[in-house]
Structure formats: structure tokens, C-alpha cells
Fold each of these.
Amino acid sequence: MTAVLPPTDQRALDLLKSVWGYGAFRGVQADIVRTVAQGGNALVLMPTGGGKSLCYQVPALLRDGVGVVVSPLIALMKDQVDALRQVGVRAAFLNSTLPPEGVREVEAALMSGDLDLLYVAPERLLLGRTLDLLSQAPVALFAIDEAHCVSQWGHDFRPEYGQLHVLPQRFPQIPRLALTATADERTRADILRVLDLGDAPQFISSFDRPNIQYRVAAKEGPKSQLLDFIRTEHPGDAGIVYCLSRKSVEETARWLQAQGVDAVAYHAGLSPRERNAAQERFLNEEGLIVVATVAFGMGIDKPNVRFVAHLDLPKSLEGYYQETGRAGRDGLGSTAWMVYGLADVVNVKRMLSQSLAPEDVKRVEAAKLDALLTYCEAATCRRQVLLSYFGETLPEPCGNCDVCLTPPRVRDATREAQMALSAVVRTGNRFGAAHLTDVLLGRDTEKVRAMGHHTLPTFGVGRDHDEKTWRGLLRQLVSLGYLAAGEHHGLTATAKARAILKGEETLTLREDTLAPRAARAGRDR
Ligand code: ADP
Ligand code: ZN
């Protein structure tokens, strides 16, 4: 007995088998294909590697006319088109890399109905000429890939994407399918508005990547922590190490090489030839590590990346999710590993407060950074924190993150927080963590003398804890917004700090940053 499928579903499945050789649709793919094949609009939120392409490729073949795919990833279009042609799909692309005669050829094929799929860069689509051609050609659907680029709040805003409302205006009858792997509430709302998808069904897949183990640790000696991690857990594995600056990329890559680790540097300051070479090596060799800025990775599809390491903080939790998501696309166990410290938190906060961006943009960026820092400081399952940011609820702790595997103990840190905050306030809200720590520990330094801080009531009140503890506590106070980072690394108590100082609010923190001096005496002396 075989179940009888509705005719569209049967045809879709037949295509999937005959063209791509796959036996079944994954997850919500079948529902999306049915919706669009029948002429409906849709919004698709699916993590990277989830299988978004088939969601528009199959309906494009099922419907009459050409499926027009808008994509900002010009560098990938040729590969995508080549792959489609190999399985017999009539595909082409239009972007700035094409010579004039190439453009004419594609346009002719479009007008004579000889194309199944046409990939177009947004700036090319928006040309009056292209829009006119499309209004005369039979169009099966518009797929807007990387749809989060419409949003100013996203990390990838493209002005041309903001103009894509011409699609619903000029082609209201043609189905629109918006696809993205990143969309918080705000970005999602922007996509719906710009593409006029208010009534369209939304297909939201889980963002969970169960095979990725999430780990975050305090930065002590980042390079040797990294080397230790690679040697003990991922010897000979392919991985990506993200650093913030070109300089630290170069340094880290060179250092790894000197330690006998196969590593190559990648950043936007290299020539296109050098960047291509690094990329090719990474794709083709076993066990190469790329040390890179965030310039590396968009569109890189290497299934067996076994780890992604962050030596510096990403800008947002979305960025972190995207970058760590490049690990383990083959579904096998992989690690997302990160170290960060007080200086990182102070730095990113200061960069943000000094940025020249408009106030509302700065506010959004600050909120995004805070979400990341909350994740970093989490004393509960990291996967639960991460997924809840994407609007998803994981009912049970995951069992595959550092917090689940080695639960940190938490304790009431109100008293210590009051000490640290009052040291900040009494020294005038302008000193950095190093000096504040000296004051708390009662160290008689030249600077302490010169400022007269040895006479303050806070001088030496923190002797029960060690330096590392105070730095960890200050880091958490900055991360959680009780302290703000100002000029020259100076820390300032915020309005939020008042409730703690007054004893109206208590604070619970991870105990690993609050170890009593005695317990560590051996190491810290
Ligand atoms: P995304 O665009 O969401 O990152 P892709 O569309 O590139 O993901 O798909 C990721 C991988 O999964 C590709 O190698 C693709 O061939 C494969 N894939 C997608 N859907 C299926 C399916 N139904 N059956 C088998 N493989 C699939
Ligand atoms: Zn967990």
C-alpha cells in the first residue's frame, strides 16, 4: 500500500529524486515547497546548512517561468549556477562580474523562456532595465536570499535590499519567498514590512545545533589556552580561530605555526590572491586551521570544521551564532570555544560608546552586545540562553555545554559588589580596573599615594579575595551594566549600581570568579 500524495507534493518529490537524487524533504522543506508552488508567499527562517536552497529551487521548477533569486553573495553565484547546470537545471546569473555580451546572452535566454533559475545581485535587479525585462518575462517566483540584509538592525544591512519593496509593488501576483538564517524579532519585522509579507506563513526551524558543544572561559593566556585546547581536543582537525584585528590574526597564525600547528591567516588586508589561496587550502586540505577576522566564512561550506574558537568577543549574539555555526555542518561532534576577559568587555563597551553612529543605532548595538555578555556570564545552560535569544525555548538544560558539564557554583556577591562599586565611586568614577584592584587589595602603589587613595575607607577592604577574583568581579559588573566603560579604560558606576550600593538589590554571581584567597593561595602568590 502506498499513500496517495496530493499532485503537487508528488511532483515535488519526483523532482527532488530525479534532479538532486535525494529521497525525501527535510523538516519543513515540503511545506514551504507546497506553499510557494501553489503561488503563496512565505518567510523562511532556517539555520545555515538547514537546506534553504531547495525551498525555492524546487518550486521554481514546478511553476511556469523563471525563479528569480536575489542574493548579495556575488562571489558564490557562479558556483551555485555551475552546480545547478551539472544536474541539468537551466540556470544563469546577472551581476557586475559579467561582461556586456554575457549580460546580453542571459537577458536573451530570460526573454525566450530558456531559464529555470536566475540569480541576480540586488543592485542589478533594481535597474530599470532589469525590472522592465522581468515584467515582460514569465517569472515563477522571487526568492530573496539573506533577507536579513533589508534590516538596518542586522549586522549585514545592504541599502539595495531596503529598496526591494519594488517587488511587491511591481509584481504583486508573483510569489515572494524571503529566506534567512538570522532574524531576531526586529529584523523579522523589517523583512515582513519591506517585502510586504504581513499575511504570509512563517516557517521557523529550530536554530539548535545539538552537535556543537558551547564553551566559554576566562581569558588568562589566550594563545597558550588555545594551543592547549587544540592539542588536547582537536589535534589535526580543521578549525577556524576568530580574532578582532588583522594584527592579532597575523600574530596568532605565526605563533601557531611556530608551535607546529598547521595554520594560515585570513583578513581583508590581504590581496584577493592571498585570500583565495587561503580559502582554497582550507577547503581542500585536511586539518588546516584558519586564523581570521570575521571577513572569513560567509558562504564557506566545509562540512568537517571541527571547532570554531573566539580569541576576542564577537559584536553580537547573532554574530557569534553565525560564526560558531560554521562548525560541524556534517552533524558530527564539534566545539565552539571562546575566551574573554575584563579588558575585552571594557574595550567593546568603550568602542560602542565612542562610535559616531546615530543614537538609535548605538542603542540597538548596545542591546545586542549586552545579550552576548549575558550569554558569556551565564550560570545556566548556554544553549538555553542562546536559543531563547532567537525566540526558542529549550525545555531542559542541554548537557552539552560547559555550564551543563561542569556546573559553576553561584553565590551571593552583593557585599563584594558593594565594595567594588564604592571603590569606583569614592575614587571619582574615572579609574581603570588595575588601579581599582590595587585600592581594594590595599596595595601601597605610587599612584595610590599620589591620589591619596590610601586614606579612603575602601582602601584594603577587599583583602579577603585575590586579584583575579576582583578582576572577574569587575568584568561581571561591566558585563551586567553596573559599571560603564569610559575614556582611557576608566570605569563609572551607572544608575543601576545605586540599588546595589544602597542594599536594595542583591547580586548573585558565579563562584568561579569569587574564590576566597585561601583556596588559591598556592597559585596566586
Ligand atoms: P542553507 O542555504 O540553508 O545554508 P543549503 O541549501 O546550502 O543550506 O543546504 C545545505 C546542504 O544540505 C546542501 O549540501 C544540500 O544539498 C543538503 N540538503 C538540503 N536539503 C536536503 C534534503 N532534503 N536531502 C538531502 N540533502 C539535503
Ligand atoms: Zn547546556
Amino acid sequence: MGAATPDSVVTTARVGSILAVTVNNPPVNALGVAVRQGLAAAMAAAQADSGVAGVLLVGAGKAFIAGADIREFGKPTMPPSLPEVCRSIEDCTKPVVAVLHGAALGGGLEVALSAHYRLALPAAKLGLPEVTLGLLPGSGGTQRAPRLMGVKAATELMLSGQHLSAKAALAAGLVDQLAEGDDARAVGLDYLSGLLARNAPVRRTRDIAIADPAAALAELAALKADTAKKIRGLFSPLKIIECVQAAVQLPFDEGMARERALFLECLDSPQRAGLIHAFFAEREVVKVPEAQAAAPRAFARIGIVGGGTMGAGIAVSALDAGYPVTMVERDAESIARGRANVEKVYTGLVAKGRMAEEAKAAVMARYTGSTSYDDLANVDLVIEAVFEDLEVKKAVFKELDRVCKPGAVLATNTSYLDIDAIAAATRRPQDVIGLHFFSPANIMKLLEIVVPAKVSADVVATAFELAKKLKKVPVRAGVCDGFIGNRILAVYRDAANHVLEDGASPYEIDAAVREFGYPMGPFQVSDLAGGDIGWATRKRKAATRDPKARYVEIADRIAERGWYGQKTGRGWYLYPEGARMGQQDPEVLAIVDAERARKGITPRTFSHEEIMRRYMAAMVNEGAKVLEEGIALRPLDIDVTFLSGYGFPRYRGGPMQWADMQGLDKVLADIEAFAKEDAQFWQPAALLKKLVAEGRNFASLNQRG
Ligand code: 3HC
Ligand code: NAI
């Protein structure tokens, strides 16, 4: 495939007195330099040619234009800039019509807002999602959208990054008319011919006055106060509001200049790099060897064993995606509870007015509860979610092997157990795989697809297909204790416990982690999940724990008191009367002090910065070990795991991207310094040392091979 040239990605054709301009830059007509040059040349030609009376802008293929070419950000900008291209469209003295189909997003919508008339086909999606990439609409979107749709609606659109349907865009004033049919070019030619026939004028968005500026500024002030509370360190939302303030207060050209300056600030921000890494990582993560080598098996009916927290959540996820679900439980009482667990999710939606009673009945009609494994004879894919006990799971898989039809995919939702051993309980290990959902399974996006030694490639491909159908973010993981996520989590939780025992309070640690951008700190998470769960795991693992490894008992002292967190009214925090926000508990601090004293530890102070250096160094070091053992295919798989399943701040791109942005030499130096206190815990990963020695970063391992 040759390099894109302006005349290959933007083609023009004369249809009577209309110049039809088509952007043809697959897959999504992104506005790379060649497209910008092509559009600028087409507009110049239209302006210069007295035979041209009007211009039609359309996109070829599945989209109008999905925005700037994200791959160009961070590289030197090549002229013409997109604001210049938009200006040449708006300046045109002949009517310019844009017909939108598929995605008209970001810079793509900004091109359309610069046109004089806009049509949308019914399936078009319009939006200014730059905020999701750490940016703001930088080609006049912040100046033109408020003029067309009002200050409040435009600002909310830009702050949310949401896509509007064509119908909603019409109602909001972003487009002039919806068009029937699916041929954007034909629809546009027809419409523009009509405009020309009646000598319709050129209408420039920039000439629209913003109604009631004082009221608009008051709305912006309210949005700013609300946004500041929600953004957890995100940079671009407040800049968006500043741009819109400029749109209200300044003449158009000055507003544009302000937008440009703030756009460049966002472009330079590390948050932009982190968010764009996340965007591409989420698209790369599905590209795994097995899914590329084999076609998925067909599946239409899903079975679930176990109707507890996870089984019910997985059932809801499958029902939501339209599948019939058969759930098997141990006995009549348990299956009644399993069904109730599923039904209560929909009852909640009905109560909130988000689902109609009939829709609930229709979904529940696809659900079958049973106490007999024989009812799984017809399912194509079954997911086991029974107690986390190897012997129980092996017994379940023996039963599945007995009843399931040949070729059915047999999956386990185990969090930690050896899936090779579970597979070995069947006569068909090639069909056995791990599907590790996160709680609540109908809401959390992450799905670790755990690949045991004997599974066949088409089963792995089927798991990725299932993830797509259930709208999950799949990450391929190898078999080990905890797979990618929980294995790494265990290590940085230990690092947090060490810091706790050495002098920081749980509240300081949580505050440091929140300041870093997490929604909650680790002790808040423990209170939410239930301290009994971690305690049970620690007791189970006590026998195999390395006696030389540092073990902090503070969490056990809390759990022994029955202080499991929110559900018991107290844990690390106090929750008076079922409050969800915890209050600091002096008794917890006294327990922490007593434990330190028992171990002869004199507490010292930790800055939030030091807390995070330790927390992150532990995360990155274990991440590097997970990589060198092949548990994760690429650093980006670890990043996506933490972004989708563990609340890692998206604008930091994930732990491995964060490490690259710090400099791996700095992270390694920290680990080596901490190792002087505890060489057993802080053993630098060989891969990390190798990358530092070679002057490379984790991103170099993300390159497609
Ligand atoms: N630039 C470069 N590549 C892009 C792109 C873009 N704007 N948008 C999508 N792609 C690539 C994807 O990386 C993917 O590549 P791959 O096949 O090699 O993995 C391919 O196009 C297809 O994308 P999806 O897999 O996401 O396809 P979908 O059909 O699921 O979704 C979409 C299509 C809704 C357009 C989605 O890709 C999307 O949301 N894209 C980003 C839109 C966006 O954020 N635009 C704003 C850009 S910033 C901007 O315009 C700044 C301006 O204000 C100055
Ligand atoms: P749970 O205790 O809420 O539910 C387990 C269910 O399995 C119970 O309803 C029980 O009656 C049923 N069950 C037990 N033996 C059975 C058998 N032989 N046949 C049929 N049903 C049987 O447990 P939970 O939390 O749903 O966990 C289930 C699995 O999911 C475990 O492997 C766990 O490690 C894993 N997991 C749990 C997560 C969580 O946050 N709770 C997150 C991810 C995975």
C-alpha cells in the first residue's frame, strides 16, 4: 500500500456546478496531513473555479470523518492545520454542504460545523469526544458548537465526550435536517441542487450571536463548579470551559486564538499521552495470536454453574447481550436465591425507571434455573462460578464433562486456582479456559481470558468473541496465582501494608492513592469488598507463605474483630448508619500502633509522594515479572487490565505506561533503594534491569511484531 497523498485521500468530481469532495482515508477518514492538504486544495479549487456554484463534503466508506489522526499527536505538526482547513471551508463564498454518516467526531464534526449546511443520515453519530483523549475540540468546536446548540448543551457535550444520534443532533441544532437513504453523496447532491436553485445564501456559524451572554456565563460558572468536583486531576475539562467562556466574551477570531492556545497546552500534557495510549491499547488488546489464527466456535446458549455474586452477575451480562441462560445450582433453595440474585438487578432498573416491567419479563423469560446438570446438555458455552475451592471445581468440571455436548466451551471464573488442574479433571482439556469476570460482573468491563496449556486456539478465539458480545474488555492472561490483575494487586497491597506498619495511617495511604487519580484507596476498597474475603484468602495461603517474607498482621487484627467494612458498619473506617463514606476510626489507629509496638517498629512519616513511589514501584516490578514469565503478552495488556478492572487513572495510561513516562531507570533506582531495607520483597525484575541496561522502555515491547 502506497503512502497517502492528498489526491488519493481526497477526491473531487464535478457534478454540474457542484464540486463533490470525498474524503477517502480508511478505516475512519481521519484527518491526517494528506487529508488536510487535500481538503485545503479542494476548497481553493472550488473558490477559484467560477464554474463551481456549491461544494459538497462527504466521507467514503463507513464514516464521514472520525476526527484528527490520533497517531499524529505528539509529532511535529505539518501544515495546513485543521483550524486553517476549517477556516477555508467557512470562508468559501459558495454554499458548502456536509452530509454526515457513521462517525462525525472531533475534528470531523468541526469540519462539518464549518460548512454552511449540515445533513445527517439516520445512523450518524456526532460528538466532540476530545476530552476522552485529554484534549479539547481544537478546530473551532468550542467556538462554533455553542453558537449552534447553546452554551450549556455544547459544553455538556464536550465535557462528556458522548456521541449524539442523528435525531438528537437535529433536536440540539447541530444539523439542519435528517436525510433518508444511505447514500450520503446522492442525498447531498440533491439537497445542494435545491439550495442552489433557490439561491440559498452562505451561512457562517461564526456569525451567529450567542444569546444572553450573562445567562450563559452563569451557566458556565455552575458547570465549572460541578466539573471541578468530579474530574480527579483531569486537565482538559476546565480548559474546555475556559474556551467556551472565550466564545461568549470575545469576538470569534479572539476566541479561536484562545482555543488554539489551550489546545496546545492539552496536547503537551502527559495526560494526553496517557489517554491516547489507553485508546490504542484497548484496540490492540484483542489482537492475540490464537484469535488471529482461529475462528471462534459458534455459540448461542450459555450455561452458568453457581448463582452467587459472580454467577448472577455473569448471567445478567449474558442476558443483557440477548443470550438464553441456564443456571445450575446445588439445590432448590440455592437456585431460588440464584434466580432472585439475577432478578433483583432488573427489579432495580424498573424501580429507577430505566426498564419497563414488560422488558424485564422478556429478559427473565430467557433465564432458566435448574438443579440438574443434565439441563446443560444443550449449551454451547458454560461458565462455572462456584466456591473458590479446587476440589469443588474439579467435581463440577467432571459433571460438565459428563453432560455437555462435544465442542462446548467449558470456562471457569476462578480468581486464583490452577486452571490446568481444573482442565485435567475432564477428558477434554482442549475445551477448558478461564473467564475471569470482575465484580459486579454485569458492570465491570474487564474480562481476563486465562489460557491454560492444553486449550485449543478456537476456544480462545471464542472467548474473545464472547467478550465482544458482552461488551467487555478482554485481556489474555496465562495461568499463575492471580493471573495478571490479582497477582500484581497482591504485591502492591503488600507494599501498602509495609508502609502502614512503618508509619503511614490507612487514611494517609488512601488519600495519596486518591490524589494519584484512583477513585478510592486500597483500604476503602477492602471495606467495600468486605475484609472477610481477603482474610479468608490469607488464611488459605498461610501454610504456603514464605516464612522469611515480611507479613503485616494489622488487617488480620481488624478482621478478627468482625470489622469487615461497609457491610458490618466498620472496617478500616466507621460507617455510622450504613453511610457509604467512611469516617476515620481512632480505634483502628490504636490497633495499628499496638501492632507496630509489638514488632518493635518506630513509626516514621511518609509523604504522599513516597507512598506512591513505593506503591507504583511494587506494581511495575511485579508487572515486569508477569511479562517476563509470559503471563501477559505485552505491557499494554497489563495497562488495560488495570484501567478496566482496578480503577487505575486512565489519564496515566496504565502502570507500564506510567513507568515509561517516569523513566524506567528512575523506577529501577527506587526498587534498588527500597531493596536495601527489604531485599526479599524488593527483588528487581530481570526484565526491568535488562530494559534499563539497553536504554529501552516498555513501549518498545508493545510494537507489533
Ligand atoms: N485517528 C487514527 N486512527 C483512528 C482514529 C483516529 N481519529 N479513530 C479510529 N482509528 C483507528 C483505530 O485505531 C482502529 O485501528 P486498527 O484497526 O488498526 O486497530 C480503526 O481506526 C478502527 O477503529 P475502531 O476499532 O475503534 O472501530 P469502531 O468502528 O469500533 O469505532 C470510531 C469507530 C467510533 C470512530 C472509534 O474509532 C473512535 O471513537 N475513534 C476516535 C474518535 C475521536 O476521538 N475523535 C477525536 C480525535 S481528536 C480531534 O479530532 C482533535 C481535533 O479537535 C483537533
Ligand atoms: P458465592 O459464594 O457468592 O457463590 C458461589 C455459589 O456457588 C453459591 O451460590 C453456591 O451455592 C454455588 N455452588 C457451590 N457449589 C456448587 C456446585 N457444586 N454446583 C452448583 N453450584 C454450586 O461466590 P462468588 O463470590 O460468586 O464466587 C464464585 C467464584 O467466582 C469463585 O471462584 C471466586 O473466586 C470467583 N470470583 C469472585 C469474585 C468476587 O468478587 N466475588 C471476582 C471474580 C471471581
